Task: structure prediction
Amino acid sequence: MFARDRVLGSWLALAGTTMTGVAGTALAAVRGTAAETLAVALAGAVLVAAV
Result:
């Protein structure tokens, strides 16, 4: 049961990180320049890959 809880927790963390990255990229696209949008998208991709 402990292993299942850890797997569920990691999936929740990945989902939260992905949603934060998507929201940040959308906000950068609306409010920023192309370079800022690319920087935010790359940072989000790095965070998702790290999880």
Remarks:
- Residues 18 and 48 are 6 Å apart (CA to CA).
- Residues 2-50 form one domain.
- The two ends are 21 Å apart (CA to CA).
- Residues 2-31 form the longest helix (30 residues).
